[in-house]
Amino acid sequence: MEEELTIDAPDLAVVAEAFDPAEADSAVLCRSHRWNPARAAVLRHHLSLPAEGIDTAARILAQDGYQLRMAPDQRESGELTRVHAVRVQVLDALGCAQERARMAGLAQRLGGDALGWDALQPPA
Question: Could you name the domain of life of the organism this protein comes from (predicted)?
Fold first, then answer.
């Protein structure tokens, strides 16, 4: 029996990443040889937000099961702070595209930027 995946699972590895806004999410997933579409993954959006927008973003994203966390390699770029919005889900191209657009809209409303996303899964 497979254990339920959590965002803090110790053996997670990046299996797909999308940081080029011109590349379709379907292409990102298709070119990944490590991604297992039948298994849940941690979807991690990389955002750059102003400090005063972080609490607002956390509240909005929590409504859909996301946790907002400071990026481990957190660094400020001007007045923006790097954060990750993370949740567990089964990935598909449409869902990734919808969430990427949602994150871009949220970041823009708060005066920040959505840098891209990556997906993490434990080894098979």
Answer: Bacteria
